[in-house]
Amino acid sequence: MMENTVTKDMPIGKVLSIHRGTARILMEFGMHCLGCPHATAESLEDACRAHGANVDELVHQLNEFLAEAK
Predict the structure, then answer these.
(1) CATH, range 12-69
(2) Domain limits of the chain?
(3) Which of 37, 2, 57, 1 is nearest to 16 (CA)?
(4) Would you give per-residue pLDDT tens digits along the chain (70 residues)?
(5) Which among 14, 7, 19 has a CA at the least distance from the CA of 45?
(6) Is the dihedral of CA 41, 43, 67, 57 positive or negative?
(7) What pLDDT shows up at residue 32?
(8) What SS3 class is residue 11?
């Protein structure tokens, strides 16, 4: 697995540290408080569960974005 590959157990803060452009996608999935300490430590899977979002679709979109951003 590439270092910049997003997985559903990855904390939101790690995703944001890979590329700040991922914030737009996270916000589209209902995650609007990306700067709060709890949110940045929460896994994508936990955040999607809390926001009623599809984690597999989120991970797919994030990885597509990162592949195109290179």
Answers:
(1) 1.10.3910.10
(2) 12-69
(3) 37
(4) 456 899 999 999 999 999 999 999 999 999 888 778 877 788 999 999 999 999 999 999 999 999 999 7
(5) 7
(6) negative
(7) 82
(8) strand
